[in-house]
Structures are given as C-alpha cells and as structure tokens.
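Loading example: each entry is read as two labelled lines plus one structure line.
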Amino acid sequence: MSLVRNWQIGRSMSYWYPESRPRRQFAAVFDVNKCIACQTCTLACKTTWTSGKGQEYMLWNNVESKPYGYYPLGWDVKLLEKLGPQPWEGKQYKGRTIFEAAEAGERALGWRPAEIDYAHPNVGEDDCAGQQIVDGAWYQVPHLSWFFYLARICNHCTYPACLASCPRGSIYKRPEDGIVLVDQGRCRGYQECVKACPYKKVFFNPMTGTSEKCLACFPKIEQNLAPQCFLNCIGKIRCAGFVHLPEKADPENPIDYLVHVRKVALPLFPQLGLEPNVYYVPPLHAPLPFLEQMFGPGVHEALATYRKAATDPDLAGLLALFGSTEQIVHRFKRRGETMYGYDDRGHEVVKVPIREPVQVLTSFDPRRGVAPANVT
Amino acid sequence: MAPTLRSLAPLLALALACSQAPQRPVSPAEVRALRVAALPEGPDDPAWRAAPVHAAALLPQDVVEPRLLAPSTVSLEAQSLTDGKRVAFRLAWSSPGHADTVIPARFSDAVAVQLPARAAPEAPNPMMGEAGLPVEITYWRAAWQAMVDGRPDTLAALYPNARVDHYPFEAASLAAGSPEQAAMARRFAPARALGNPMAGPRPRPVQDLRATGPGTLSPSEQQVSSGAGKATPGGWAVVLVRPLPAGLEPGKRSQVAFAVWQGGQGEVGARKMRTGWIPLALEGGK
C-alpha cells in the first residue's frame, strides 16, 4: 500500500498503488436539480455501447430516485452499512476509506451484488421519503416528503477501486485523460472489480467472460466531444470537461470554477476515498443530513451558493452553458448578459443568453381577435 | 466361545468388498508418472487403475491479495502417466455443488496443473513462477467442459427464461450467418473482437497459460493441451494431457503443483486452494 493525497477528504490515505495522476482528468458536473429522470441518457448509452449479448442488464448510465432507488439494489447503503458510521472533522475526513477498511485478504472493502440485485433497474422510482402525507396536508417548504433523481455513470476515479482490486492489472487509467478502462483482451472475468467498485459501475458479461464498464465515450473525448449521455440529456444537467487539483484550479475552466472556485459541485461519497470525478450540484429540497452523507460536508456551502445563482450572472451563465453544445467547453467568459464557451484551442464554440427572453401572452390577442389556448 | 457365523458376517462382508475393489497403488511422497504406450484421454479409462495415487494436500492461497482465508477443498487425488512425449494427469476432488456456469456473482469449478517451463535444479517460485523462471499451467474449467459437452453458447443456455427483443446484429437487413453479420456481432462483443480466449465457444475445455509471478498469467502462444472432465457423484474427475516441458524426459524428475477452485464458494483467480511443489518422477525405459 502507498500513501497518496486525496484532496476531497482533506488528507492522505492508503491506496494499492502510488499516486499517479493523469496529464489531465476527465470530469463532469451534474446539476441534480435539473434532472427529470427521463432516462434519455440511459438509453443513449445503452444503444451506443451495451446492446450486445451478455450486456442486456448493463446500465453504464442510470438514473435512480433517491433515497429508495438503486441499481444494483442497495449499492450504496450496503457498503455504508459495512463501513459503519465514520466521522468528518470540518472538511477533513477522519474515518476510514474503503481501502483503509479493507478486510483481511482484500484490497478494498466491498461486496458482490447477487443476480437478483440487478433484476429491477428502476426499483424505487419516484418513491418518496419523509413524513406521511395525510388528508388535509398542504404544500410546505421544506417539503413534507422528498426524493431526487441521481444520474450516475462511472466516476473515472483518481483512485479507482476496480483498478486496485484487479489481481492481474487488467484495468488501467489512461494517462492522457484519466479515463478508467477494462482491457478486454486481458480480463479473465474474476469479477473482483465488480465487488470492489463502491458505485457498482463495472458489470460482468457472461457471454464474453469479461467485465465491462463505462468508457466515458473516449472516442468522442479524443475529438473534444461530450459523451453520448451528455449530448442527449434533455434537461441539460450535464457539463463535461477536465478538472485540476484545487491549487491548480483555473477559474475560467467550467469544471474548476464549479468545483474549486464556487464549490457548488461535490463528489459522490467522497468518504469512500476514490476521489471520484463526477461532481454533483446537490438537490435543494432534501434533508441536509442525507446530503451530507452523500456529498460530504461541503453541501451546506454548495446549496447556499446555488440558491443565489439567479442573482449571480457568472454562475447562472455557466449553468446555462450546460448541454448547449456537443463540444467540450474548456474555458468560459461572460460578456454582459451572454456567456461564451471556448474549446481547447480557444475557438468560440457556443454562446448562450444568461436569461431567455420572456414572452408574455395576453389572455386575448386583439391583433388576431383570438384568445390563445394552451394546448400542451 | 466359538464364533458363530452371524458374528463373523461383517468381517466376511468386508473381505468380499476388498476383493471386489482392488487396492489402488499409492505414492505418498511424489507424483509418479508411469510409462504407457498410449495416454488415456478420459478419466474412466482403465489405464488409470495402475497409476499410483498421490493424495495432495491443498492449502488456501493466503499470501497474495486477494486471498482465500477459509480452506475449502482440502485434498486432491493426482495420478500421472506418460508416453515419453506427453504427460497426462488424472485429478479427482470433491465439489458437492458441481458449479459449471459463470455469470454475475457465480463462478465455475476449475482445476489446474502447473509445471516449471523448464525442468532444472532451480525450481521457480511455486506461486505462479517468477521473473526469469516461468511456469506453464494447464487450466480446466467446468463451464468450458459443459460447452464442449453440448451446452450452446447462447444466453438462453444461461438464462432459460430470458427474452430479448432485438440485437442490432440480428436485424433483418443482415443475412443470418453471413460474414457481415458475424463481423457486426463481434463488434458488440469487445472481448471476442480482441480475441480474448476467455470469450466465446471453444473446442477444448482447457487452456494453456504461462506466468512469471502473481498477476502475470497470460495465454501461451501455442494451445497444446487437451483434457476431459466428468462429474463424479461427489465432485469431478478430470484428465489433462500436455507435452512434456523443456528438459523433462522419461527417467527424469521435475516438480508439479495443483490448484482447485470451488466455484460455488466464490473461488476464482487468486482465491484458490493450491499445493506447493510436489516432486514429479517420470518412469524411464522403453
């Protein structure tokens, strides 16, 4: 085991291999508040990558309703239960990561889903948690009942548990973009990675005898294009890019700005110790203790900043850039009421108004002499 | 008091049983390969009756992560024969579950024979060899045996109730069985497209492998071994036949090691029961 730095937990930790960061790290920000769980991302991925034999059950991308939605069943709560309660002290995690809590003979603390755990891909859809709604209840904030949609892909972690757990080094992290891949020529299907990945984003293919996973649409990344699940997102909740270490954050880089400068986007279960690289703008209307467990102690600050986004032109403008182009936006710049996005060579690839012009339809149109009806 | 016929009955029965099942020769200290003219290809071949049985004690692989901490299969019966060019091993062990499918979270029973790639006074590390001292492994898997014995390479064979609407490579525009269709199907099975020998149908239930230490296992350039396995009432009996490794010939000695995986216990890869080196003596002559 080596001692490596994990900025997300504010300390060094044990990992199977020495620290070796890629030249640049693929990363993403998902704004949970904009997701409507239409599953278009899920289908975009499915039709692109996993329509082969043995891949029927695979969802490299899925959207689940939290707190009761899972794919596979109980992926998060089963591991949290195994790990037990662990403390944070401020922004520093004092508990044990899955590498530090590994049981004897194991490289990481994990569990292996049974087949039945994959049987219901959208279990828990729209199930609410919270107080029981009884006759006579009225709308309140915070809501009496709550749920939110969590869109998930592989986190292309800086310290992948799948990679650490493979006894024969069949999983590798690309030095050019940090994308984590299973070498399909070398894998022997031991399924150690399936057991170790806390996000359960590696799947065993029984027809090829190997494990397969999200590859961040790397052929598109190589052409500066966003992955299929980003491009097809109806709610425009996703932003693809590259993230730096906090001390090297570039305030004009969209991911760095959201993650490091404004701290409005947070990693998923940072306490597990993988330094995952998909960052989430947490949901506004869910209990804070739940969100703290899921996204770490930064959730209070993130929500406070996000609540003011409407009066914050840079943040509002950047959020409006999400999903506005297939090109990966490496830099952004606001001029007045317009936000501009640039590719890695500095060419302008998109511009969006921070606020769409509002059209007010009157109840009667005197010019045409009709009363417009809303037909949707 | 003179013994009555009734009191002698159990002894008589035992004597009768012993006369029906002849005592098998044993070789407690080493695996002795008898010289024969023709090697048997199956575990039920009468040629095995003469081959001495070595009862190999198995230990958990509890040195390299991921480890196996709880012992499962504690012993394996090994016999060996050679025709002077090849060596055959008959391996029998108990595996109550007869696990012969590999699907998510389920693994196959398996067995392997390991020999130094070159018979020499300096033996490689018994745990998968070492740099400069490679080992050669012949690996048999019950799931592959099931395919060789006729289980189709289809999803329905693994999941009889599965219903799939459509695969892109089975579109009506592609003639079934055409090269175009085969090429497209390969694109949807990355491991097959890359020629990974773990993937797809196979003519033999065994695989030739080579290693120079834990984590280095890779398929041999030449696939030269054959084998056949059969479920027994309490486990498996498997015959593995491979060419003699470099430097090993009749009358000479080398080492052999065995490993057993109980798929039903989640044993796969490094999680296995294994032996250290056991002396291997090849009978000379002829």
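Chain A has ten helices and 19 strands.
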